[in-house]
Amino acid sequence: MRELARLICYLEREGCTTLNEVITGKGYDKVISAVQYEAGAHVNAAERCVFKSPAFVLKVGGSLLECAQSKRGLALTNNDAVSLKDVEDFALLHSSEFTDRSSSAAHTSLRLQGNSLNEFPDEEDLKTLKTYQTTKISELD
């Protein structure tokens, strides 16, 4: 919900009043712009699009699809052919373009961030840890 709220806040600044309004084929580009802005998209030194918050992209992608499914269910219930067409267009664009435009860059960003140490521990700290572990292991035997 938090991710969707962030998108809605951005979309409101762009003149859209509800998420339902942009879950259409025409609104898809606005949604992608909002996702990229909120995730901190930028081009790195290797000329790749990366995200400051790649997990946000992956989470909100799934949430947007769930919202589209909810809108589809409501359209079917109300026998609203226009809304059904809108949500089908959005879902089609999402399934065909979201990976290329956002999620693959998010996965790349996660891979690039990785688990790297900024500095290695001191040798003295490692010796202290080893002594402590050896002592505790001998106490357990």
What does this structure look like?
The model has no long low-confidence stretch (mean pLDDT 86). The chain has helices at residues 2-13, 19-22, 28-39, 54-78, 81-113, 123-140, and strands spanning 41-43, 49-51. A two-stranded antiparallel sheet has the order 1-2. A hairpin with a 5-residue loop joins strand 1 (41-43) and strand 2 (49-51). The longest helix has 33 residues, at 81-113. With 141 residues, the chain is mainly α. Helix 3 (28-39) runs parallel beside helix 5 (81-113). It is elongated, with a radius of gyration of 23 Å. It starts with a helix and ends with a helix. It has one domain (2-140).
Describe this structure in a few short sentences.
With 141 residues, the protein is mainly α. It contains 6 helices and 2 strands, in the order αααββααα.
* Tally of alpha and pi helices: 6
Work out the count of structural domains. 1
For the residues shown, what is the average pLDDT?
A: 86
Whole-Å distance between the termini? 50 Å
Please write out the topology.
Layout: H1 2-13, H2 19-22, H3 28-39, E1 41-43, E2 49-51, H4 54-78, H5 81-113, H6 123-140
Antiparallel strand pairs: 1-2
Helix pairs in contact: 1-3, 3-4, 3-5, 4-5
Highlighted features:
141 residues; mainly alpha; two-stranded antiparallel sheet; 74% helix; elongated
